[in-house]
Structure prediction request, 379 residues.
Amino acid sequence: MRRWFHRLGRPGLHTSYAEDSGIFANNVQRSIAFAAVVGFILLAFLLDEPDDRVWLLLLSTAFVYSIGSIGLNLVTGYAGQVSLGHAFFFGVGAYAAAALGGSADGEIIGLGLDMWIWIPGAGLIAALAGALVAPIALRLKGLYLALVTIGLVFLGEHIFRSWTELTGGQGKGREPAQMSLFGYRFDLDGNLAGIAVSKEQQVYLVTFVLMVVLTLLAKNLVRSRVGRAFAAVRDRDIAAEIMGVNLTRYKVVAFAISSFYAGVAGAIFYSITGFVEPNAFNLLLSVTFIAMVVIGGASSIAGSLMGAFFIALLPKFIELVLDWLPVDPTTVTQAITTNQIERILFGVLIMVFLILEPLGLYGIWIRVRNYWKAFPFSY
Prediction:
């Protein structure tokens, strides 16, 4: 009882190394995670009406964004290597998957492989691209590294527009990889264990499982020796090198792992949308991922998830708010579009969180949690 009261007043206190380094610090967090997983799975079958399926697609997009956001957070939030080139690796993954899992029509590359091959394959090809770019990070950091990674985005746009055998070319594009496994198509209406399911439900479940697996892998990574090395490089790279941390190795590893996550996210995302177009991988996409990390919370896997869900669901909530306004929504959208409102909110929220809450939504959650855990001694 005494130990319980001691921890009640200090919510961040851990009394054992296993508790401090565990994926979930205590049984409460394990219970919340389990309940969340069960809830999201049940949601797939509760939203089975045709009008509800748009929410399944939005949530599927949020799951994919979460994977990409975690990847960027690993290299920027945990390893301290500021990258604005995430859209490039996102595109590499999308086209690698399209080449491995798409169908060939005589002019475009396509091998028609199953998703158990093209998903990790897209991630590995993107990771290789990240490892090739990583040596730049050995000489640059901060603003200079950010500017160089911006160059990757413009270089990628040129490559994607010019390599027509892979991308289909500007204005034409190509079909993405098919979500098939041993002949079963997840991107079509089907039957799972005797239950009729729509393609939206199947895509939702596939993306959710991928998000859970990759989230647990990332959570396990950041509490490992590699994760501690990332934090040392981020905080004081010279001191870390003196202590024996190999800067070259861990910066390359950080970029490769981040690129792997971006590649997997790009591969799945365009299998959901059904079309890949070269101009999609622009600077705005990179800024969108930066917004996820800043708004959700840097150096936090949970913050990556929060930021991704926030950004993915924001356009729909903007539409709902416009519908609730006591004016005609068409009058508002004629003056300013939903996309313009979304971009304005991106900029405002990034500034607000950087100034008032650097830990983002995760920081707000920590404050609320600590307040109620220590209540009534919350001063």
Observations:
- Strands lie at 180-181, 184-185, 190-192, 195-197.
- The chain is about 70% helix and 5% strand.
